[in-house]
Amino acid sequence: MPDPKVSISGGSFTVQGYAPGWSIGNLGQCRLGDNFQITPTGSMSDPQLKLGLHLIDCVWGRRGSIWLEQSLSAGGTFSLGGTPMGSLQLNNQLLWQPMKDLRFTLTFVLNGQLDQHGATGSVSFGSQFKVTDSKATMLGLGFHF
Amino acid sequence: MPEHPGQDYGQDYGQSYGGQDYGGQDGSGDENAEVTIDYEYATEESIEVSMDELTASGYQPEPDDSSQYNA
Predict the structure, then answer these.
(1) ipTM of the complex
(2) Which residues on chain A are in Cβ contact (under 8 Å) with B33?
(3) Nearest to A7 among B22, B59, B68 (CB)
(4) Which of A70, A61, A63, A69 is nearest to A32 (CA)?
(5) In sequence order, what are the residues at sequence separation of 6 or more whose Cβ sits closer than 8 angstroms to the Cβ of residue B12?
(6) pLDDT by residue (tens digit) across B9-67?
(7) Which residues of B touch A121 (CB under 8 A)?
(8) Which of A7, A49, B12, B71 has the most CB atoms within 10 Å of its CB?
């Protein structure tokens, strides 16, 4: 079996985004690199960077919307007027609500290799979201404060 | 309207809540106050992306060199 043309071990990429007026679901429909800066972390060769960025495109196109929806099954914390108030259970109504302020950090850590057939490996995906809108809007989404 | 409504907007209604009552489920209080929700999520999955899918995304395979490198 020939050696892989490109291999990535722990290749980390970060997307820090600010998307006022976007919904969280909108993120899953876009090509991240077309709208936000994807920043590699650590030292990678040009072939690794190129492969990593395209792998993120492909994986995000396939799994991004699912991950975003799954992320809403967990809980979060909320603050009011900048004052931390406590925790709350999220819900799917948040997915398609355009937010006055949407900030996020996505991280992708890639491990794998490319051969003539394609790429195989694993991805560790992490996300942090901070969404802000009026209390009235949030109440309309079914949140109780 | 106070600059930071969550801190003292109870006074808008002629009552002092000491900054503790921020509306409640009945929607009372300043509904223009900004609510920020923070949350996180993480997962790990295996990936398998065909060369066709990669090239469709714009990827151009490397010339036949061995570019193995641990990031």
Answers:
(1) 0.93
(2) 80-81, 134-135
(3) B68
(4) A61
(5) B1, B2, B30
(6) 333 333 333 333 444 444 446 878 999 999 999 999 999 999 999 999 999 987 764 44
(7) 46-47
(8) A7
